[in-house]
Every structure is written in structure tokens, then in C-alpha cells.
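Sequence, please.
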């Protein structure tokens, strides 16, 4: 279910990217007002097309005096030809003209709106240059949302001589701008937020000091980081607190930066050649949050002191292809005393060993650790997680973990949230989590694992049936060996479960040893004479006497005759005369020639 929520959110983001604005009516039809032409709620009048049954409204009706915000989206106005178009709404402060296919705006159309502070013109991509100049001349505006209006198609600099002295937010997302000079906004002394996200920017120039607090130039084509220092080494952005340059093509960072108040830096999705000697207290003295997602085709090795002397840093995100040397994990974050959140998701990761005590100081304050989708296959019994003594949240979901060592998380005395969902875990033993660890949990995710439902999992079935507060999505705990069966539903016979797995293993091993021993004893007994002969040959038949006999050929007999007692008569009458008398051989017969008291083997030899 957590993955479903994640995918749902991702889908909404993708839809918003390709279809920036939706004309959707979110108000009840019972709120009709102004002779049924609009829907009113509190101080808002929604006169958009979709709140009117898809019927366009080409004029502004007389609004009640309490209405301060007019939603006039998607009415297919095409043009505002009269300077008195808004004469029935002169008191409003907020106006939304999104998706009206405007091609013309009368130069004096907004003059009656003496209190207008927020204007949205999103998706009107047919406006003329003159219309833009009209909009940029509304002196009362505090917030201007002019996204996806295709401003980049004009060769003229539309931002020359802006006349919006009170503007604080300027949203120019998705306008296909290729170049922009931020110095054009230096005269807007109250401007705090500039959004240039999702344009086609290849160059952003800065010549004068800007007192903005937030700049977003993400999802463009910038090859260089923004210029932040002037010729005297002073900051061009002395008040900047948030900077988003994600998803560009930046390969090299400047050696020195002048961003004294920057708190949030988003560098994700660039192609940095190196991340060494960049993130330190000299360049970022006020940085609290750093997002540094790497591209899929790159690989960064995080070395010792990569992130050093960042006195107020609280959160670092290093997702996608960041590799740590096992003995340098914590020492990569030196002198970062406030670092509490660390995101290492979506990259190849192997659990390093726990470093020495002197190297764990950078990790001792981390409370939130995220490593989902990091290709983790196992959790060693002794691993670096135990270095995070204050850890409260740990996410290891979407990995390839097959088993959990007993007590692997018992050393994390403050752990409250643990995500192990969407792995390959088949069995959770009663010793995986101690009773104290289970009591500490506020959330435990083990759902969507291929559990092997057997006697070993009965204790876990009982736990799920008790439905503790910290376990959610019980219906997503399913048996991989029993199709369409949930863990809370499977049944096994009692008799096979009377013995534990360890006891069964001991019994099977013992019986195996006994059977093998019996087979060996039986084989030795049946081949005892052969073995005695082999032993004799090995220890007695190769002595000095035998060696001398073989060397000089001084043998008492030529042939030893072995025969059954039933054949003794034939041996005396037929064999002996033939071999001894006629052929002259010396025969050795046990009845005649053996020396009493000696071993049979010795007599034969």
C-alpha cells in the first residue's frame, strides 16, 4: 500500500508536468451564487467553466462585496477588449484567468482593480508582447503566476523596465525561455521568489545584487552553476535561502561560492564530475538541507571528509549511485553536528562494518535513515546500523533482503519506524525482534514479502491476528507457497509443528551419523581379512627380512598351496607327486610345513 501511495503521487506529478493546469470544479453545486452564474464559498467566487456545467462565461458578473477572489479559469475568453471588463469586480484582490486562450488584453483592463495583489495567467500561450508589458505594469501585484505562456518565443527582452514595485513572487515556469538576465529584477526590491523551472535555459546571467530568497531554475539546460560572487568577492545573492538547480547539465561547481544565507540546495540530476572539496563550511555556512541525486549512468565514490564543517546541516540526500568505503562511512560527514536525516536510496549499497568509536561521531545524531531500492541483499549480524545510536526511522524497503538475523535491530534502542516491505524475506523467526523492540515500534512494515507459510511462521501469524497498532496493511502479508492465501489465513497440522526446526535438525543429524556409522562397521567386518592383509603388507610385509629375501632369492618354498580340507586327499595323491616329484618344486602345505604358534600370515610369508 505504501508503494501504491507513492506511485499515485508520482502519477499526479507526471500529469501535472504534462498538463500543468486542470479546470476541475472542486465545490458543491449547492453553493451557487450571483444568479446561478458562479459557485461561492467564503470569500471566493468560482466562475470557471467546469463549475458552470462546461458553459463559458464571457463577462464578469456583479460580485458581492464580500468576494475577494475570482476564479475565471477556462472560459475561452480569447480577448479582453474593454477597459471596463472588470468593472463588476473592482474590489477583488485575487484573479485567476488560467487557460482562457487569451490573445489580447486591453492596456487599461486591470486599472479598475486597484487592490489586485495576486494574478494567475497560466496556460495563455498566445498573448502578444504588448499584453505582457500590460501585465508587468500592474503596480499593485504581489504575486504573478505566468506559467506556460510561451514567453520565450519573443526576441525582445520582455523583462525590461518592470513596474511591479510590490511583487514578491514571480512564477515563470514552463515558458521556453533560453536566456535570462536576473539583473532585470534588481529594481523589484521586495521580490523574494523567482521560479524559472522547466524552461529551456542555457544561460543565466547576474550583474547586480538581488535580494531574493528563493530561486528555482530546475529542469533546464544549464551547463554552469549560477554566478554568486562579484569581482570584489561579495555575494550577488546575500539573502538567498533556497536554490534549486536540479535536472540540468552542470558538470563542474565553482571553487568558491558566495551564498552566506543559503539553507536549501537542490543539485539532483546533474552530471557533476566530482563532489570533492565542494560541500564545506566556507562555501555553505548556513546550509541545512542538501539534495544530491546522481544520474543513473554516473557513479560517485564518497570519500573521507566529502561533507565537512557544515555546522547547521540537518538533512543530506545522496540517492542514486553513491558508493561508500566501508571504513569511511561516518567519516564522510565530519564536523556536521546537527546532521539528523540521511537519504541513501536508489543506489548500489553494501552494509559496511561499524567503524571505530572515533569515526561514529558524525552518525551519532542521525535519527532518520532511508535506504530503499538500494540493492541490499543481506543484513550482517554486526553491521553499521548499530552506530546510529539515536536512530528512530529506518527505511530498507524495495531491496533484495532474504532474511533478517536474530536481534539485528535490538541494539537500536530508539527505533520506532522500520520499513522492510517489498523485499524477499520468507521467514521471520520469534527471535528476529525482541519483546522490547516490538514494544518500541510505532510502525513496522513487512508487507509484500514472499513469506513461506509453515510452522516457523505460526508465531508471526498470531502477531498479525492480534493486529497491533504498529502493523498496517495486514492483507498484504501473503504466502508465496500457498496461492491466494494471506499469512493470517494459512493452516498447518499440529503434529509436524510439535518440534521446533532446530530440534528437528538435531534429530536428523544424529540419525544420519548413526546410520553412517553402522554402514562403516558392517563394511569393516565383512572385509576384515582383506584389511588385515593390507595392514600386514603396510607394516610388516615390507620389513628388512622380506627385503633381503626378495633381493637374494633365498626362499624355502616355491609355492604355497591353499586348499579346502575336502580336497586334501586329491592334493596328497595327485598334486604333490606331480609338482614335487616330477617338476621338482618345493610346496608349502599348512598341515605339513606351518610352524606351530606363529600367525597364519607369518607362516605363509
Amino acid at each position: 500500500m505504501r508503494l501504491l501511495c507513492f506511485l499515485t503521487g508520482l502519477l499526479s506529478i507526471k500529469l501535472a508536468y504534462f498538463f500543468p493546469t486542470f479546470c476541475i470544479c472542486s465545490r458543491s453545486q449547492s453553493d451557487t451564487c450571483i444568479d446561478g452564474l458562479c459557485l461561492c464559498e467564503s470569500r471566493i467566487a468560482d466562475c470557471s467553466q467546469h463549475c458552470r456545467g462546461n458553459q463559458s462565461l464571457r463577462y464578469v458578473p456583479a460580485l458581492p462585496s464580500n468576494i475577494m477572489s475570482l476564479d475565471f479559469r477556462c472560459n475561452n475568453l480569447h480577448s479582453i477588449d474593454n477597459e471596463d471588463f472588470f468593472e463588476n469586480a473592482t474590489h477583488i484582490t485575487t484573479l485567476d484567468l488560467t487557460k482562457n486562450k487569451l490573445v489580447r488584453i486591453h492596456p487599461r483592463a486591470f486599472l479598475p482593480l486597484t487592490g489586485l495583489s495576486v494574478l494567475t495567467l497560466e496556460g495563455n500561450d498566445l498573448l502578444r508582447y504588448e499584453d505582457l508589458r500590460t501585465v508587468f505594469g500592474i503596480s499593485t501585484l504581489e504575486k504573478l503566476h505566468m506559467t506556460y505562456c510561451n514567453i520565450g518565443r519573443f526576441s525582445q527582452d520582455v523583462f525590461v523596465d518592470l513596474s511591479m514595485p510590490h511583487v514578491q513572487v514571480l512564477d515563470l515556469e514552463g515558458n521556453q525561455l533560453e536566456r535570462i538576465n536576473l539583473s532585470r529584477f534588481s529594481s523589484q526590491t521586495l521580490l523574494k521568489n523567482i521560479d524559472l523551472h522547466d524552461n529551456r535555459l542555457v544561460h543565466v546571467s547576474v550583474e547586480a545584487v538581488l535580494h531574493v530568497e528563493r530561486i528555482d531554475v530546475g529542469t533546464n539546460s544549464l551547463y554552469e552553476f549560477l554566478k554568486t560572487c562579484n569581482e570584489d568577492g561579495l555575494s550577488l545573492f546575500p539573502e538567498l535561502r533556497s536554490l534549486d538547480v536540479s535536472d540540468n547539465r552542470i558538470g563542474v561547481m565553482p571553487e568558491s561560492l558566495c551564498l552566506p544565507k543559503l539553507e536549501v540546495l537542490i543539485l539532483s540530476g546533474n552530471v557533476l564530475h566530482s563532489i570533492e572539496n565542494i560541500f564545506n563550511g566556507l562555501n555553505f555556512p548556513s546550509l541545512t538541507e542538501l539534495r544530491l541525486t546522481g544520474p543513473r549512468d554516473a557513479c560517485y565514490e564518497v570519500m573521507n571528509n566529502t561533507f565537512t564543517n557544515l555546522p547547521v546541516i540537518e538533512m543530506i540526500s545522496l540517492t542514486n549511485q553513491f558508493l561508500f568505503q566501508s571504513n569511511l562511512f561516518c567519516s564522510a560527514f565530519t564536523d556536521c553536528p546537527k546532521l539528523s536525516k540521511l537519504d541513501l536510496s536508489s543506489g548500489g549499497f553494501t552494509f559496511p562494518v561499524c567503524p571505530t568509536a572515533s569515526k561514529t561521531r558524525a552518525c551519532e545524531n542521525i535519527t532518520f535513515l532511508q535506504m530503499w531500492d538500494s540493492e541490499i541483499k543481506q543484513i550482517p549480524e554486526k553491521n553499521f546500523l548499530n552506530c546510529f545510536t539515536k536512530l528512530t526511522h529506518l527505511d530498507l524497503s524495495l531491496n533484495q533482503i532474504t532474511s533478517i538475523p536474530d536481534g539485528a535491530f535490538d541494539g537500536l534502542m530508539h527505533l520506532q519506524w522500520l520499513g522492510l516491505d517489498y523485499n524477499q524475506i520468507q521467514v521471520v523467526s520469534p527471535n528476529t525482534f525482541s519483546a522490547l523492540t516490538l514494544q518500541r515500534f510505532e510502525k513496522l512494515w513487512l508487507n509484500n514479502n514472499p513469506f513461506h507459510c509453515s510452522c516457523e511462521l505460526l508465531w508471526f501469524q498470531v502477531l498479525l491476528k492480534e493486529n497491533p497498532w504498529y502493523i498496517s496493511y495486514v492483507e498484504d502479508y501473503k504466502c508465496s507457497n500457498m496461492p491466494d492465501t494471506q499469512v493470517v489465513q494459512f493452516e498447518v497440522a499440529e503434529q509436524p509443528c510439535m518440534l521446533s526446526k532446530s530440534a528437528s535438525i538435531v534429530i536428523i543429524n544424529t540419525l544420519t551419523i548413526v546410520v553412517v556409522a553402522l554402514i562403516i562397521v558392517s563394511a569393516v567386518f565383512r572385509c576384515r581379512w582383506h584389511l588385515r592383509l593390507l595392514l600386514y603388507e603396510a607394516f610388516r610385509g615390507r620389513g628388512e627380512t622380506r627385503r633381503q629375501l626378495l633381493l637374494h632369492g633365498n626362499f624355502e618354498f616355491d609355492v604355497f598351496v591353499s586348499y579346502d580340507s575336502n580336497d586334501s586327499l586329491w592334493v596328497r595323491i595327485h598334486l604333490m607327486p606331480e609338482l614335487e616329484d616330477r617338476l621338482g618344486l618345493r610346496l608349502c602345505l599348512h598341515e605339513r610345513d606351518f610352524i606351530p604358534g606363529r600367525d597364519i600370515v607369518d607362516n605363509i610369508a
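The radius of gyration is 43 Å.
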